[in-house]
Each structure stands twice: as structure tokens, then as C-alpha cells.
Design goal:
Layout (H helix, E strand, L loop, with lengths): L2 H13 L8 H5 L4 E5 L17 E5 L1 H18 L12
Antiparallel strand pairs: 1-2
């Protein structure tokens, strides 16, 4: 595993540890994956920003996989390179 992959794992675990489970209402709705923002794959991921500037929520496994693929597929053709700034508008 390369250093970037290791850091992504650390970032994800800092905000969405495996010990954290979805509340019953979320599980009932099929939202069992913790999803974090800023993205774990970014330099701002994990706990690098104060808690007031980051968020996590529960999403379905399909939504989590689809969003991850969309981010990757957006970055490649737009040539967003390592350390390039970008904005996310939700």
C-alpha cells in the first residue's frame, strides 16, 4: 500500500471509525456506510480541519460506491493533479 493509500485509510478511520455503526433508523433505510467530507482522499480529509468544517452522514452502499467513482472519474479528465485546489458545491 502506498503512502497516499495509507493516509486515505487513516483519514477515513479518523472520521468514520469501523467501530461506529449506523443508528437503527439509518440501518432500516439501508444507509449503513459512513461517508465523510472533506473526502478522505484529499489533504483536508480526516481531522485536518476542525469539526465545525467537516461532516459525516450515513449513505447506502450503492450511493457510497457511486459517489467515489464519480469523484475519480471527474478528477481524471479534468486533470485535477496532486495539490491542485478545487471547490465542491453541494
Amino acid at each position: 500500500m502506498d503512502d497516499h493509500s495509507k493516509q486515505k485509510t487513516k483519514n477515513r478511520q479518523a472520521v468514520c471509525p469501523r467501530s461506529r455503526t449506523a443508528p437503527p433508523g439509518m440501518r432500516k433505510a439501508g444507509r449503513t456506510y459512513c461517508d465523510e467530507y472533506p473526502f478522505a482522499s484529499t489533504y483536508q480529509g480526516g481531522t485536518k480541519l476542525p469539526a465545525s468544517q467537516r461532516e459525516s452522514t450515513w449513505v447506502s452502499p450503492n450511493e457510497n460506491n457511486t459517489q467515489g467513482a464519480r469523484i475519480t472519474n471527474w478528477r481524471r479528465p479534468t486533470h485535477v493533479m496532486d495539490k491542485d485546489p478545487f471547490y465542491v458545491i453541494a
